[in-house]
Amino acid sequence: MANQDLIVHVENKVMSLTLNRPEALNAFSPEMISGLQAAIEDAKTNEDVRVVVISGAGRSFSAGGDVKNMGVAEPVDAYNHIGRLNELILAMKELEKPIIASVHGFAAGAGFNLALATDLILAAEESKFVLSFSKVGLISDGGGLYFLPRLVGVHRAKELLLNADPIDAKRAKEWGIVNQLYPQEQLQEETIRYATQLAQGPSKAFGFIKKMTDQALTSNLAEILEQERITQAMIVTTKDHKEGVRAFKEKRTPNFQGE
What we know:
Number of strands: 9
Strand order of the largest sheet: 1-2-3-4-6-9
Number of helices: 10
Structural class: alpha/beta
Helix content: 40-55%
Strand content: 15-25%
Shape: globular
Distance between the termini: 27 Å
Largest sheet: 6 strands, mixed
């Protein structure tokens, strides 16, 4: 499944996806986008995968769009490229398994938005985040106009989008963009530790938590209450629930099997 622009590795129920164009600060290429989507589609049905981690090789997470293509693309090229990116973003949100972004260096433009499309962002203390689209006369794509206001509020989102100034990791955490910060030299180790621990959890329940938390942003209270009732009535029959209850009573760590 791996291609030159993406490294795929599965170990301990964690699928690691490494953006691999370090010479271009992991700017997106068609091969990278198609590789990411293929990996996400594989993760949907791969029982050896319970958590997905996206990170970048080299000095940064991702610079987003490739500057070599800017200013020369025809409208149809932009339309098709963003269409492929949109399919990836939708596949990530539809995956009923947690996705973690492990960010170091810069997460810029669509690279920032790729991170926003994940479920959790772990970042190096020295990392920076920037939506630089307006500096080249563009709007944000890759879902940034959807995800960002929901995380930081409309006014802060407009500030980031209009001014296109970078924010550091500390501020990103204060604003609710980043979940955890680590020293850069510890980021990879801590990300794998975090992901491996998450992969030991009740994956069926995690799938519903991810799906319904996202739905809650566009649903009313009555709809979510009913969905909670229906879902809970289903998952009380799962082996993971029964194992969780046994482990609680026996005062031990549960051994969830994703069933």
